[in-house]
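hiii so um. not sure if this is the right channel but i have a protein structure encoded as tokens and i wanna go backwards to a sequence. like what aa goes where. can anyone help
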């Protein structure tokens, strides 16, 4: 991003103030984006081909005030952090979600070097996930005020990210090895997510956003309000009600 585009991005995520190259800044930027740019798969459901180049992501997510899924929102976050001055390496992660099965790599994550360490950044999960940049240190338990997180090393999976809500056990969320990726490397897994019959992302609405201490989502026709470590509200929304709800809660149209 040039300086004008970076300012437009910061306006989009409603973030002001100095941005020193620290882990605290990474957390501020990530949380601000998670709170303003929704995770959403509406283009996948509509059959609209996705473009992952920096300009296309900027136009869709910043200028058109849309959201996107992990390849899009984490791509935008990557380009913004580099424009601020951070060194960012991107990796491709395998989703685990409680199971240690080997799955294809279909998630985009960022490893960011700051003045005070190296951090994992991710604004692209369609669930309550880390609201802060996580220090890349094996075994260190880190809290974002909602859940605790821990990174571990594994001979096959590489880094494994674990999450624990209050009163529950840690469970594996995703894993990644340290092979650097480029924008082009995400084109093939993104196309699989868009078109493959086994993709979980091209069937039903998957839309979410952080709202203060809460996490709001639409999963199919269900509206879900997640607070702390549990679902506080879940109800079915009729097709007629959905456009207004999507616009009001997620800024989607």
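sure thing!! here u go:
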């Amino acid at each position: 991003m040039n300086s004008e585009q970076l300012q437009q991005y910061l306006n989009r995520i409603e973030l002001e103030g100095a941005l020193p190259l620290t882990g605290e800044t990474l957390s501020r930027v990530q949380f601000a984006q998670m709170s303003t740019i929704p995770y959403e798969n509406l283009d996948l459901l509509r059959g609209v081909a996705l473009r992952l180049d920096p300009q296309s992501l900027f136009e869709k997510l910043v200028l058109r005030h849309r959201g996107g899924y992990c390849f899009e929102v984490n791509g935008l976050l990557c380009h913004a952090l580099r424009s601020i001055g951070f060194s960012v390496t991107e990796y491709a992660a395998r989703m685990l979600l409680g199971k240690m099965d080997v799955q294809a790599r279909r998630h985009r994550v960022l490893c960011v070097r700051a003045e005070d360490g190296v951090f994992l950044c991710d604004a692209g999960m369609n669930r309550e996930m880390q609201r802060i940049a996580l220090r890349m240190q094996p075994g260190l338990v880190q809290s974002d005020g909602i859940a605790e997180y821990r990174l571990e090393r594994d001979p096959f999976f590489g880094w494994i990210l674990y999450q624990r809500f209050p009163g529950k056990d840690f469970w594996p969320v995703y894993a990644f090895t340290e092979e650097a990726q480029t924008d082009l490397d995400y084109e093939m897994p993104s196309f699989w997510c868009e078109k493959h019959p086994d993709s979980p992302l091209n069937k039903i609405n998957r839309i979410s956003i952080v709202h203060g201490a809460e996490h709001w989502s639409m999963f199919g026709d269900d509206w879900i309000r997640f607070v702390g470590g549990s679902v506080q509200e879940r109800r079915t929304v009729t097709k007629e009600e959905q456009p207004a709800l999507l616009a009001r809660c997620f800024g989607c149209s």
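oh and DSSP finds seven helices and twelve strands in the chain.
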